[in-house]
Amino acid sequence: MRQRLVVMVKEPRPGRVKTRLARGIGTVAAAWWMRHQVARLLRRVRDPRWEVWLAVSPDRALRSAVWPGDLPRVAQGGGDLGARMGRIFSRRGDPSGSPTLIIGSDIPGVNRAHIARAFRALASHEAVIGPAPDGGYWAIGIRRAPPAGMFDGVRWSTGHAMADTLASIPSLRVAVTDTLSDVDEPGDLKIPADP
Predict the structure, then answer these.
(1) Residues facing 129 on adjacent strands
(2) Which residues touch 89 (CB under 8 Å, ≥6 apart)?
(3) Low-confidence ranges of the chain (pLDDT < 70)
(4) Has residue 181 been placed in a domain?
(5) ω into 48 cis (within 30 of 0)
(6) How far apart (Å, rounded) are the C-alpha atoms in residues 104 and 140?
(7) How far, in Å, CA of 88 to CA of 143, rounded?
(8) First CA to last CA across the chain, in angstroms?
C-alpha cells in the first residue's frame, strides 16, 4: 500500500496565480515567488516513503515545462477547491485504499517530517487535517475513498474553511496534525531583516 502525496500547483503566470499576494507585491513578483516556492517545496517533500504527484491547474498547463519531468501529473479540473480535491481523492486509482495526502504549494515551512507525521496519523485515523492559523488548512488526507458530501458547504478562502470541512465529514475519525502557515497576502511573507 503506497502512500501518495499530491501537491496542488497552479501554473506560475503573472495575473493568474497568487492574486491576493499580487495586489501587494505585483503580478510578476507573485508569479516569481510561486514558481520558486514550488521548486523549494518539492525538494523538501520528496522522500522514498511516498510517491509525489502534482495536481495541476489550469488543465492546459499539465504539459508545462515548469514542472519537474519525473513527477506524475493529474489535471485538477474545474469547480471550487472542494470539487477539485474531491476529484483527486476519488480517482486515486487504487482500490486497496492507499492513503492520500493533499497539500497546498504555498506552505513555505512544510518538510518531510510534517508529511511523515500526517501519514502516521492516517495509520490510525480515517482522515487527517493540518490547520493553518487563518482558519484554513495546508493539508488534508484520507485513507480510503472519500465519503459522499465531503467538502459540501465549505466556505473556501475564509476563516471557516477547516471547521466547515470537518463538519462535512462527521462520520470520519479525523486526526489533527501540525499547524503551518500558508502565503495568501503580502504580510504572510517572512522577509528577513537586514543585518
Answers:
(1) 140, 176
(2) 100, 102, 142, 145, 146, 150
(3) 1, 92-97, 191-195
(4) yes
(5) no
(6) 9
(7) 13
(8) 49
One-letter amino acid for residue 105 of the chain:
S
Residue 76 domain flag: yes
* Grid coordinates given for 118: 500526517
The bridge status of strand 137-142 relative to strand 100-104 is antiparallel
Is residue 194 in a domain?
Answer: no
Residue 107: the pLDDT is 95
pTM: 0.93
130 forms bridges with which residues in the sheet?
Answer: 139
- 152: how many CB neighbours lie within 10 A of its CB? 13
The dihedral through the CA atoms of 11, 23, 45, 85 has a sign that is: negative
Q: What confidence score (pLDDT) does residue 1 get? A: 61
Strand 137-142 to strand 127-131: parallel, antiparallel, or no bridges (unpaired)? Answer: antiparallel
Q: Look at the block and give the residue holding cell 501540525.
A: 178
**Residue 45, domain extent:** 3-187
Give the H or E element holding residue 164.
helix 161-167
pLDDT at 195: 40
**Residue 69 has what pLDDT?**
94
Give the containing element (helix H, strand E) for 122. helix 112-124
